[in-house]
Amino acid sequence: MKIIRLLAALLLFTGAGLIGFAQQRTIKVACIGDSVTYGYGIEDRENNSYPSQLQRMLGEGYEVGNFGKSGATLLRKGHRPYMQQQEFADAMKFGGDIAVIHLGLNDTDPRNWPNYRDEFVEDYLALIDSVRKANPYVRIMIARMSPITPKHHRFISGTRQWHSEIQKAIETVAEAAGVRLIDFHQGLYARPDLLPDSLHPNTEGAGILALTVCSAITGDFEGLRMPSVYSDNMVLQRGIPLKFSGTADAGTEVHVTLEGPFRRIKTQAVADADGRWETSVRPLKAATGITLTIEGGGRKLVYENVAAGEVWVCSGQSNMAFMVCESSDAGPTPSDPDLRFFDMKAMWHTNNVRWDDEAIASVQRLEYYRPAGWAACREDNVQTFSAVGYHFGKMLRDSLDVPVGLICNAVGGSAAESWIDRNTLETEFPAIFNNWLGNDFIQDWVRGRAALNIGYPESGATRHPYEPCYLFESGIAPLEKFPVKGVVWYQGESNAHNMEAHEKLFTLLVDSWRSYWDNPQMPFHFVQLSSLNRPSWPWFRDSQRRLAEAVPHCGMAVSSDVGDSLDVHPRQKKPVGERLGRIALHDDYGFKTVPCGPVFTKATARKGQVVVEFGYAEGLKTSDGKELRCFEIGDAYGIFHPAQARIEGTKVIIETDGMTPRYIRYAWQPFTRANLVNGDGLPASTFRTEIE
User: Fold this and answer.
1) What pTM did the predictor assign?
2) Other C-beta atoms lying within 10 Å of the C-beta of residue 411
3) Which tens digits make up the pLDDT trace of 439-450?
4) How far apart are the two ends of the chain, measured CA to CA in Å?
5) Contact 311, 300 (CB under 8 A)
6) In what order do the strands lie in the sheet with 687-690?
7) What would you measure as the largest C-alpha separation in the chain, in angstroms?
């Protein structure tokens, strides 16, 4: 099979070129570049640089030459122009049949890009012309640059931005010159551990680059493969054009067939030069008993008992991971063949222990979750599924009467920054990367637990699920944009020390996931922190309330009434999941149900009183039938006093008792016994505001 692929690779050359190859015993591959190509910093670089590893991958019939020059610039006016180096002359003399060019990293130096950026495209084209003169039949590949990590000393001062600009310029060059564009960035981007000095790959990283080039030359991408989220019993999102994507050997024709209680649906695609393919089918109606078949290149993948319905991601930290068997109010949990789980469990729990070497090595490789598959809800497996997720999904099942699929990847103790994609954080919040195990943006408990798990600094390992970006890269990216309706989120405990940072991080998180799923209006509903004796929590809960108002297509479920003063894991999860369900049914499915408790709108002063108004306030009452509790008014200096409050229709009236109040707040206790609810028994949120 490999011989066939190699022959196919040869056919990519021009007919004139084939004559030349017929006269040669080997195909010469010239690796042109800077220190990354040279193998700077790699132990035994003669054998472990990417060109050396490429030679072993390609095997007999190929001769790979390493023409890397440390510090070389693509720019001819740069501080070390590649075209003026001996390595360039040697590469031209070599006259490769295939040329792989990786340049641009050193052009990010402030001596170069700021001064000569306008000449980059022209200079790159000149280099390509030189390579073609050396061998008119050469097949040229130019690479998107390998990453530069935030630890680099110039990252914030300009390198990050210039690196991005040069990447775009390289894409322009590929189009202008009509050459193949390959990617040295993607394979290393989520693995900063493979770039020990922030710039140069180690042996393993060089191996990833070698494999990238080898696959580009041979078209071998290990045959037809689908993301791990595809399995029997999966739920496909109904009502939208449904995308299917995967990888296959370059040029493979892939056929997708759906059979079920509808006319057979067939579509096809061809894997591109990078082994990627994508196709789509018309929106599906809710259905069960679907068989999905994907075949190509001699491989056939068959997925049975597939359903079409509603798919939601359930994510966050431990209160979302909290299982049905751990809750106190689950009630009966009957089997339901049309409520289905894709339960991503961590291989290594973030308990108060030091991990062994196997765990540390696995985490370094982004292998954090156990292999998972879709399964229908049964009395046994439901017990180990997210309690909040289960009750949310059950409410959708009961109300919509369609199949519901839940993907749960929550991780106990995880902070918001661990769930945001790398590019977003590098662009919008680069300071979060600065010595993350000693960074005050990150909660001290989070840093301490991570350091304990990986034995830092003794072990030298720095990768951990709490690391910025880590859970996006290990728990979101592997979903490969599997179509979903929306997200339910329960997290914040590990960011409550700094609500200002969280306000930015939460917004970035929502934007990150909406961008990933290419859905700027994707519902993102979340749970407000409950009650607990932690001083910062009233401020944090109020911040979450304001975020729900500010971020479009976000709904917030209040949980303060089911909190526990001593336990960060309240055991009543059913009302929390059902409150999320109410929000989704109202906001996303058009149900006329009341989505939430009383929502504060404004507070107005009148003679001797403050009138507080709410939305969703029909049937306003107290949860226990007693007098209203936990309203306070504050003077101009922000000194608050308990206030006497009563309900009048849909409003709350507060007596000022001769005081001239400026502020009002409600449920402003870490653990609160506030009791204002609406006619549906749903609680009002903590809030603090200035009186109008």
Assistant:
1) 0.94
2) 28
3) 999 999 999 999
4) 76
5) no
6) 640-642, 631-634, 663-666, 687-690
7) 102
